[in-house]
Amino acid sequence: MPTQRLRLNDGHMIPRLGLGIWQVPAETTAGTVATALRMGYRLVDGAAIYGNEAGLGEGVRQSGLPRDEIFVTTKVWNDDQGYDTTLRAVEASLARLGMGQVELCLIHWPCPARDRYLDTWRALIRLREEGRVRSIGVSNFMAEHLERLVGETGVVPVLNQIELNPRLQQAELRALHDRMGIVTQSWTPLGQGRSFDAAPIREAVARTGKSPAQVILRWHLQLGVSVIPRSTRAAGLAENLDLADFTLTDAEMAAIATLDEGLRCGPDPMTFA
Length: 273
Ligand code: NAD
Hints:
The chain is an alpha/beta fold. It contains 10 helices and 10 strands. The mean pLDDT is 97. The structure holds nicotinamide-adenine-dinucleotide. The site of nicotinamide-adenine-dinucleotide has 22 residues, from helix 9. Nicotinamide-adenine-dinucleotide binds next to helix 9.
């Protein structure tokens, strides 16, 4: 499962399942990342604002795996939006990571009130041309931000990382991504456990013998998206990786579709600054 990959619109591949490291303490990040990589994870989702990029880089080195087998994502934080500030912010991320290049760099939030995401994007295009980042994408972008970005620059993000879980299924945005050739990646994929006790999840758990988290992660994979659950426990890391030996039926997928309430766990991208 972790080695299954999706093709990005620039020809590179991204693992379908990865490890998210938001709120993983800086001092334990290297150990968590190295453990996960040794277990089979191949994608680690970091960000400058998480404050643990040094640990991410250290964990990659500690894992002993060849660097080219690992997919590292980082993100440009809101305060760094703008052309020159983004160039400097990405160089600072690379220095903290101890890497010459990351596989993917995202604009963390559109921050429409700041209105700097076009300049931020132009800086990422330059960093890609210079080889400092291999692929470029966005996070928390809504339809109007994606359409403006592509309309003004002609460069389509490879991926949009958005909040997506059974209570917030984002069907319209996923359909737009499909039309534009953008991979969807789900953050807070477990939705803070809000649907663990819902009947469609409980019924799939009873039939498959898997956990609620595994059923929900499998649902993400069957939607065709990439997913980045976070766990710091070895047992949780292993559980979230163990998704290959079962399939949700069409009826189970349809039942989970009824759980959508359009409810966010996190901030609203239209107003978050
Ligand atoms: P998540 O949905 O991955 O859930 C994490 C929580 O679920 C933790 O409390 C963890 O202990 C628990 N958990 C993990 N595995 C479990 C299991 N098998 N059974 C029961 N509980 C389990 O939430 P998240 O960390 O918010 O999101 C995942 C990643 O997405 C983040 O770490 C980060 O990398 C990324 N993210 C990005 C943005 C963004 O704006 N781009 C925002 C939030 C998160």
